[in-house]
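Posting here for the record, re: calcium ion.
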Amino acid sequence: MTLILVAEDEPRISSFVKRGLEAAGYSTDVVADGTEALDRALAGGVDLLLLDVGLPGMDGFEVLRQLRGQGSPLPVIMLTARSSTRDTVDGLNAGANDYVPKPFKFDELLARVRSRLRENVSTGSVEIVYSDIRLDVLARRASVDQREIDLSAREFALAEQFLRHPGQVLSREQLLSNVWGLDFDPGSNIVDVYVRYLRAKFGTERITTVRGAGYRWE
Ligand code: CA
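Prediction output follows.
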C-alpha cells in the first residue's frame, strides 16, 4: 500500500489531510516535528512526503535540504501559508517536486498527490543515453563522454526532459509543468535561468533557443 508521510504541526490540518488520504485509499503516517519528519523519511518505506514549511524542530526547507543532501529521491510536496514567488522558488530549488499553498481544498491536494505518485512509477527506462550523454535516472548521475557532470535535482530533471525528447521543441510552459509541476507565473524566467545553467554545464551549443516557441536539445 502506498504510504504518505504527513509532516504538519497543526492537528486540525493533519487530521483533515489524514482522513482524506485514507478515504482515497492511502496509508498515512503523521509527524508534527521537522526532525522527526526527516528521520522518518530517511528510514524508508515512504512513497511521498507532504511537508509543511513552518514546523517546530527544523523548518520544512531545512528538512528538504537535508533529505536531498543525503540523496533521497522521495517525492515531496510542500504545504505552506507563504505564497510569495520567492518562497516557492526557494522551496523548489531546495528540491521540492510541487507546492500547495494554504489554504487548499482537499481535492486540489489529492490531485497533486496522485500526479506525483503516477510520475514516480512511470518514469520509464532508468538510463537515458543520447550521443555522448548518459543520465542514470535512479542514481541521478549525469556524464558527458564518461566525464561526470554535477547537477542539482532541478537541473537533472530539466536535462531529463530534454533528453527524453531530443530534437523536439519544448515550450517553456511544457518544461515548467513537467519539471516544476505547477502553474507558475507565466512571466517567470525560471526555465531560462535553468537552461543557462545546463548550457554552462553541457555546452552552449547543445540547447537551441527557438524564438517564440521554446528550446530544443540538439
Ligand atoms: Ca505549521
